[in-house]
Amino acid sequence: MKSLSLASSGLLAIVALCSTAQAQCSHCNSGTLADAYRAGYTQNVIWPSQFIPAARRSVHDAYAMVVNNGWRRQNLLGNYHFEGETNELTRAGQLKVKWILTQAPYHRRSVFVERAGDESETATRVASVHEYATNMSPAVGAVQVNDTHIVAEGHPAGAVDSMFVGFRANQPPPVLPADTGSSASSGE
Question: How far apart are CA 113 and CA 148, in angstroms?
């Protein structure tokens, strides 16, 4: 602790000496070296507090980007939400749009449409979503629909349903194994 106080008092003595020497010298910029020492001392005293806001902001921005991408994927309509030939919404697509526009938080009510093979198909899909949303309810208002390069992962609802129905249909009934009589009873 003594060495720290001696060092800081020595630093103050150097700063005072430099400032008086520069004050006497007419060719020097007044106080430039002393200002540099004071600035360095101040930065060392407040360290690391000057870096904390930037570090917090960078962590917050990274999490905000992850959350935004998650909502974009959640509100994404893929190929299986549209009919193959007409690019109109299927029943699953209509239910998804309805959920997005009624259940998602207000600031997350944007619909994202996976891009189709060409621009005209994508435009038809976006128009289909707009048409369904405006016919759904006048209280919904303007709907923000964006096309995106993200590919929707998943399967058509019919395929998933048939998989689960097939699993249940082929499951053996829960029965106990038959008694073979080979185990001896404890009473004999």
Answer: 6
Residue 9: alpha-carbon gap to chain centroid: 51
3-state SS, residue 186: coil
Could you report how far apart the first and last alpha carbons of the chain are, in Å?
A: 87
Residue by residue, pLDDT tens for the chain (188 residues) are 444 454 455 555 555 555 555 555 544 455 689 899 999 999 999 999 989 999 999 999 999 999 999 999 999 999 999 998 899 999 999 999 999 999 999 999 999 999 998 999 999 999 999 999 988 877 767 789 999 999 988 777 778 888 888 888 888 888 888 888 776 555 55
Please report, for residues 94, 129, 138, 150, the alpha-carbon distance to residue 142 in angstroms, rounded to integers and kept in the order given: 17, 12, 9, 23
Instruction: Please tell me whether residue 76 adopts helix, strand or coil conformation.
Output: strand
- Please tell me whether residue 142 adopts helix, strand or coil conformation: coil
**Using CA atoms in the order 57, 63, 69, 75, what is the torsion angle rounded to 10 degrees?**
-110
Burial class for 129, CB neighbours closer than 10 Å (0-12, 13-18, 19+): buried
Residue appearing with tokens 């303007």: 142
Q: What six digits make up the tokens of 172? A: 């053996």
